[in-house]
Amino acid sequence: MFNLILFGPPGSGKGTQSEKLISKYGLKHLSTGDLLRYEINRQTPLGKEAQNFMDKGHLVPDEVVIGMISSALDDNPDAKGFLFDGFPRTSAQAEALDNLLKLKNAPIAAMLALDVTEEELIKRLLKRGETSGRSDDNNENVIRSRIVEYHNKTAIVADYYKQFNKVVMIKGEGSVDDIFKRLCVEIDKRA
Ligand code: AP5
Ligand code: MG
Which of 152, 138, 169 minimizes the C-alpha distance to 12? Predict the structure, then answer.
């Protein structure tokens, strides 16, 4: 099993690059943001709880997202590997993921971390907010809260994987295709 984490701040291109990577490498895409938005669209109890946090640009509680990832791993016993997008986002999530993957004897091969300036992140998200309908994209204050959450709680997750030499920084600006090529070079070294 080949498992990757695509890491980076809000708007760094995780979703965009994930689509291309899963099709090239045959991985199962697990995006906690997408899973949460699916629950919100169906107005499930979990979705309603998560929406209160997401609308403010705050992280959803760890136990909610860890539970979702645990079920998704169980639901895909035959996957060749997983591409984690937007997860893990706290130290507690990183430790929970390690424990879940230990049970499957399938560690993380690498964390690919997209590096994008804050100015570019805000520009991209405000632009998408004009059409996406995502409640956390159409307000600059909420976008800034998402970035603050990233600095306060998520950036340290990279330190967790650095101790195992798993982190690779990738320049996340430029064309989508050029960034994709940079990612593939690093993946091919490890596949
Ligand atoms: P989530 O859905 O994960 O959102 P995010 O990480 O905040 O950011 P995005 O998904 O918007 O950005 P992205 O990096 O995927 O970039 P994208 O490819 O879309 O999380 C949303 C919320 O859910 C969180 O705030 C939290 O509340 C909750 N949540 C989710 N996971 C959680 C967890 N594990 N724990 C707790 N809470 C959790 O690109 C962005 C835009 O840029 C697009 O318009 C795209 O077209 C454009 N773009 C992409 N690449 C380029 C490029 N190279 N040049 C120019 N534009 C580009
Ligand atoms: Mg995304």
Answer: 169
Distance 13 CA to ligand 1 centre (A): 7
**Digit-coded pLDDT (tens) for 22-80:** 999 999 999 999 999 999 999 999 999 999 999 999 999 999 999 999 999 999 999 99
Which atom of ligand 1 is least distant from the CA of 61?
Answer: 36
CB atoms < 10 A from the CB of 52, how many? Answer: 10
Q: Is residue 119 part of a domain?
A: yes
Residues 6+ apart with CB under 8 A from 97: 66, 69, 84, 87, 88, 108
Question: How many structural domains comprise the chain?
Answer: 1
Q: Distance, CA 191 to ligand 2 centroid (Å)?
A: 24
Instruction: Among the bound ligands, name the one nearest to the CA of residue 33.
Output: 1
| Structural domain harbouring 95 | 3-27+79-190
Q: Which of 5, 7, 12, 16 has most ligand 1 atoms within 8 Å of CB, for mutation?
A: 16
Gyration radius (Cα) of the chain, Å: 16
- Determine if ligand 1 sits within 6 Å of the CB of residue 121: no
What is d(CA 87, CA 92) in angstroms, rounded to the nearest whole number?
11
